[in-house]
Amino acid sequence: MNKLALRGCVITTLAILLQSVPVSTVFAETINQGAMLSITCAGCHGTDGRSTGAIPSIAGKSAQYIEKAMMDFRDDKRPSTVMGRHAKGYSVAEIKLIAAYFGNQ
Amino acid sequence: MNNNITRRRFLQLGSGLLSATSLGVWSQSGLTAGSKPKTHRVVIVGGGFGGATCAKYIKRFDPSINVTLVEKDKRFVTCPFSNLVIGGLREIDSITHDYAALKTNYAINVVHDEVVDIDVVKNSMALKGGGSLSYDKAVLSPGIDFLWDNVEGYSENDIGVIPHAWKAGEQTTILKSQLEAMANGGVVVIVVPPNPFRCPPGPYERASLIAGYLKQHKPKSKVLILDAKDEFSKMPLFTQAWDALYPGMIEWVAGTDGGRVTQVDAATKTVFNELGDPVSGAVINYIPHQMAGTIAQKADLTDASGWCPVNQKTFESTRHKNIHIIGDSAVAGALPKSGYAASSEGKVCAIAIVSAFNGIAMPDPSYSNTCYSLVGKDYGISVADVYRYEGDKIISVKGAGGISPEDADDSFRRAEALYASGWYQSITQDIFT
Q: The pTM is what?
């Protein structure tokens, strides 16, 4: 997101808070390569990486943790059932984007 | 969702005092204050794994888009895990979902009706209940329909006696009831169609879980699979599991060994292969040959194959502009006809549509698939792959993906059974909430 948009975002937020208007709010997620690579993970790990079942959540973990986990799965340094098969499908640069996406949740 | 505005832009909807115009609508291309923006309209046909996912993710990426989801049923019963219902491991209520959260959480207009015709020139759809819907872009995720004519003697009128159970719901219950009513020692015949068909490992998961039920309740019974093909999805894993869990209970007949069924006699519960050999069963589950959903055929979106050719990056039809097809109906390169793939396609399609409306470059698409099959209560196997768009096709990434290892131990199989249930929990949460 560019700085202008970010500034506008803050101003809009403040404007709404100041006026105390009851509004139905939603957050538009930014389209970028990180989102494209990451949203498909939600099928197993839940929307935004928040799993409610037996598969671990990704949300709440740091980007560093996620990057290391993905790299270890990819390089067969960490045992897994299915993650090794997935992680091998991504380049180092892509793993960094995925880690940044979920690390910022 | 959290309030992290460095990643997510804040929009407000539905306020009478702060109109979109006075604030400026934050489209994906940035702030466009001062001019009243055009409200883009998307109509999505089919509220299953592809369509419902696409609706939700369009709204996540751009809540200003008006999204209408047309789905015949008020409650959606998933095909994934319907084999667990048939095998007695789950109740059908646990695989039944509704659209309340999509309406409330994402302001998606859910219309319970059926699209009977699409005017691809005027961009409008006629509804069975009367009325019509106009769209700027449409997404069709109609799933499959059956090629009744590809077999003699079987039609829609026979599905109460010989269920296909390849669309979940009442059909699932019929098959389950027939198994429960069957005497100990009966033969259950599963007839499997040729490729391509919905859920490639599905028939073999079904055979496994039926065998599981029979082993417990009717141990003299058997499952006979008559297959149109000579090999099948996750074949070494299934056959290994059958030997381990259900020795002697499941017999698989390959297409070239007489497995191709060309005739069905519902009255005597008998099927005939291409040589004319009859096979009778106490229960027959005939899974018909398949094609794209009827509405796709009607709207001239299918080719000679019976499926819908699409631009595999955006899923826009190659036959008509502004209509995207996702899920089982689409020809999606190396992606299988699975619920997970349909959902993944729904997300890529959502990004394609939002990018186009907002005039931004679509990122390089990335797709994935993860399918678990439960072979026994504590015995799971999986196939997983990562896919990319290369040339003009979706290809699976070399060196990644594949099926569960053949030499895995019991704890690995138990873990995959556990993850299968976690998968179901997550994917249905991702789609319907």
A: 0.90
